[in-house]
Write a structure and sequence with these properties.
The chain is α/β, with parallel strands linked by helices and about 280 residues long. Helix content is about 30%, strand content about 20%. The longest helix has 21 residues, at about 80-100. Mean pLDDT is about 90; it is low at about 1-5, about 10-20 and about 275-278.
């Protein structure tokens, strides 16, 4: 009941949106239609029609065939950044770059953040970020604490300085060295890291805290926001971190969550097994 009431308050606070829906594409190259539908459904629970969003699945071939011209924001979710790049092919990756350059929004989550970086040969190079400790990308999984910058707390509408979020092998961002791109704005850093028992042997501890967890930037006329952790996971009540990131990518103002709303949030549930990351 508390969960329904909490979601209801978020819906009511969001009804001031324009009549024209924000057109959101959620990427999936999975050939398993049930799995692909599940990925999209996660975001339709956050970005509902009542709140002014129109969410659809986009496949690699859709992107290559020009579907991005009908979208405001593209969400590249978790999975594998290199597999996303491979399935998109050069034409698809270039289409995303041009989409953002000419005013589109890009939201990268975990694998999508690897893809957006300026680190790998297959990366999109739309955010000036390198991946720290590339050798030990498989750090483990579990809940971590993020600390927001002042900008990040306001931009993502969070009422407190810190938040607990699920982490599943996402990139540890550091400042990139691409002089053709502007420095990114740091919205949140990792305060804690995954527990030792969840980390594979040989992965050093102490690297994760202080690295960038959420970052945003402009690329041409468009906007890019990247999340290393997974605020979209349905077992944790932090959906507003994703919604406000999508809103910023679309050029919209954030919808802040009040302290009262935050205190009435449901308790986190049991995490689901993560997909393998890059």
């Amino acid at each position: 009941m508390r969960f329904i009431l909490w979601l209801g308050m978020l819906v009511v606070s969001s009804l001031g949106c324009s009549a024209e829906p924000m057109r959101i594409g959620v990427y999936s190259h999975s050939t398993n239609e049930t799995k692909a539908a599940g990925i999209v459904r996660v975001f339709t629970l956050i970005l509902t029609k009542k709140k002014g969003y129109d969410v659809q699945r986009v496949k690699p071939e859709d992107i290559r065939n020009g579907v991005l011209t009908n979208l405001d924001v593209l969400i590249m979710p978790g999975g594998s950044g290199s597999k996303q790049a491979t399935n998109l092919e050069t034409t698809g990756r270039e289409a995303i770059q041009q989409f953002v350059k000419h005013g589109g929004g890009y939201v990268g989550i975990c694998a999508g953040a690897y893809l957006a970086s300026s680190h790998y040969p297959w990366s999109l190079h739309i955010i000036n970020a390198q991946v720290i400790d590339r050798q030990h990308w498989a750090r483990g999984k579990g809940n971590v604490i993020l600390t927001f910058s002042e900008l990040g707390q306001k931009a993502l509408g969070h009422p407190e300085k810190e938040v607990e979020v699920y982490y599943g092998q996402g990139p540890l961002y550091g400042r990139g060295t691409n002089d053709a791109l502007p420095p990114y704005e740091e919205l949140a850093v990792y305060k804690t890291e995954v527990a030792k028992e969840n980390v594979p042997e040989g992965v050093p501890m102490g690297v994760m805290p202080g690295t960038t967890a959420i970052a945003r930037t402009e690329y041409g006329k468009g906007r890019v926001i990247c999340y290393s952790p997974h605020p979209e996971k349905p077992f944790q009540p932090v959906y507003h971190l994703i919604e406000n990131g999508v809103r910023w990518a679309a050029g919209k103002e954030p919808i802040p969550v009040s302290e009262a709303e935050w205190q009435q949030r449901p308790k986190p549930g049991k995490p689901e097994p993560p997909e393998p990351e890059e």
